[in-house]
Fold this sequence. Notes:
By secondary structure, this protein is α/β, with parallel strands linked by helices. It has two domains: about 40-365, Alkaline Phosphatase, subunit A; about 380-745, no CATH class. Helix content is about 55%, strand content about 10%. The strands form four sheets. Strands 1, 2, 7, 9, 12, 13, 14, 15, 16 and 17 form a ten-stranded mixed sheet that branches. A three-stranded antiparallel sheet has the order 3-6-8, covered by helices on one side. A hairpin with a 7-residue loop joins strand 10 (about 210-215) and strand 11. It is elongated. It starts with a helix and ends in a 14-residue tail after the last helix. Residues about 1-30 and about 745-760 have low confidence and may be disordered.
Amino acid sequence: MTGRRRAPAMAFLAALLAGVVLAPPAHAGPTSVPDGRRVLVLTVPGLTWKDLEAPELSNLRALLDESAIANVATRVTSVVSEPGEAYLTLGTGTRAVAPKEVAGLSFQVDEAFGTTTAGDEYARQHGEVGDAQVVSLGWTLLEEANDAAEFGGSIGLLGQALDDAGVSRGAVANADGADPLVPGEPIHREAALALANAAGAMPCGQVGPTLLTSDDTAPFGARLDEDAVLDAFDRCSTPASVVLVEASDLRRALAFAPRATPELADAARERALASTDALAGALLTRLDPARDAVVVVAPSTQPTPGLGVLGIKAAELDPGYLTSGNTRRAGYVLLTDLAPSIAALSGAKIDEGSIEGRAVDWRKGPADGAARRAALVDAEAAARFRDQVLEPVVLTVVVSVSLLALVTAGALLAGRREVRPWLAQAALVLLAFPSLTYLAALFPFHEWGAAAYWLFLVLGSLVIGGGTSLLGRRWLSPLAATYGLLVAVVTLSVVALGSRLQLATVFGDSPIVAGRFTGINNVTFAYFFLSGSMLACIAVEWFPGPRGQRLMLAILGAVLLIDVAPMWGADVGGLLAGLPALVLVAAGLGRWRVRWRTVVLIGLALVLLVAALGALDLMRPSADRSHLGRLLERIGSDGSSGLTTVVERKLTVNLRSLTESTWRYIFGPLAIAAGLLWWRGRAWVRAVLDAFPALRRALPGMLALAVLGYGANDSGIAVPAAVLAVAVPGFVYLVARVQPDPDAERLAGQVEPEPDAGGAR
């Protein structure tokens, strides 16, 4: 490559490294803890921010209005986490599995178990009881389940870290429900898993039936005895301690709801909320606001998908929002972030390199607590709406692109030339559609409803598609406009708007699914890179010679920079798949020959770039590190097992997409359409490639984008499907705007030669 050709590439790398180094640091979290601090962790299963508007929740509302708050994504193995896996994850700092049949089996050591006591049974399993008061008799089975799981967490990590730091701990919880309709499942003490140590034991706590009192009006005839709860809390809440108290009446109310009329179920939950608020008020009187800390969290959103409540009240945290290095977005935290956060509040330490979680950090929010709560309610509503319309939108894209391809193939084979303008128009409308799904984030469609949302997408696509079709100065102008719009929208989102157009949009990120909260996700990566590659092809076509090559390199370099820079796209999978693909696109468009030596150099460049980005990412504060930096942290902590765990998890999810993703339905119809074109329509394909030779040269890179995108990203089949979803309409537009050579058509047996047949219009 000559010096002139090398300059754009060097400028791109310089911009990338400068962007990484100059990325702004996060607000530093608390670094010191008052001596003798007590931490109360009050878990409120199923509580929502909307619930806090109820007048009977005055204590919780006042507490949370003085706290730093966030929506907590509670997904573990599914978007609605089971209590066992939620509590075990809370104490592990990494997603953990907890089979329901053993998750709740925590007991007082002197509690009857079979013909003996739970302590005797625990001693048979583990050798000794020691000073434990609460033990999990299913702990060994939980360890085996997590050793075989895809997440690689060490259960009991938080409890062990507290032990090692000399911080006492205890749990006060009993969600038992002797429901005759569920024989064999009366024991529900999953909350104790959150603070159990590496052996499944706890030095203080009360989880036995002494916490309950009979109440004929309560679900399953039992409710918490507030005095018993407070006595147990007082016993465990010594200086330098962490005590978890579960509002177990809320658990019973949730379990009761499917078995009662809606009116009685609502009444039972209202009573449970009122008793929880009273309990919270009584607990708060036992704490010192200047020294102690309170964590309020809903670890599960049963029975429906959603986001849980999280608030932390501590002297070093002003009222505002919480964030973490996982979300990097104010007002959002993951359930896995609770373990390092509770440890930090108590003065203990967890090596974040070995876990998924990151300690929470503070962000400024509205001074009025009601305004902060309203913002989180609105954010959850937007997330729920996004998840509700996701499948219909994806299915619409799959069906529309498939029909367009099949109709185009059928029309060409039938010689129906008169439909080609309609096909070109339909292709432009479909190309405009993805951009509108991101721009929808600018409007409150979760308030306006699905009808308004679909009206915006359909009418907007028709207007943009129709408008671009009027750009007739050059036949590629409509494609440049639609692909350019998609590139511009993604760029605007991640560079200028903090990924706002990505959050809670159908092709962006779901806060409830909690895969990403910032940057560029896998489907957007596919859209962005394919659209950028098409723009590069058009640039070379419009500007032959060095000018076009420089513009092409600038476009591809900008796409790569925006996607991989940690402060913008932060897309590790995009780097692994996108860099080789864009190099092939650039080589084809630049007419640079690719030899085996070139392939080796590309591989070395990829390794060096990953290493450089990773090293620079590790120089940033932990809260600001991207997926790459956290992966390298885990490798540094766990060795090769840290990498293999991540690879195995991504591979599992990747393979699962072959049978579960709606995107998979696009391949069958497109394969049929491609077969028809190969059988009788090769003249049309040849005409497109002759009229647009830059596309012919870029095709290997675009194919590599789809193949490598599948292998490098855990969205699996969705990535090549998304590539096709924006590539096929572009190809249909091109087919509709060219005219094959009449002799080639006649030889293919399609139509008789026409005197006015020509090239691209």
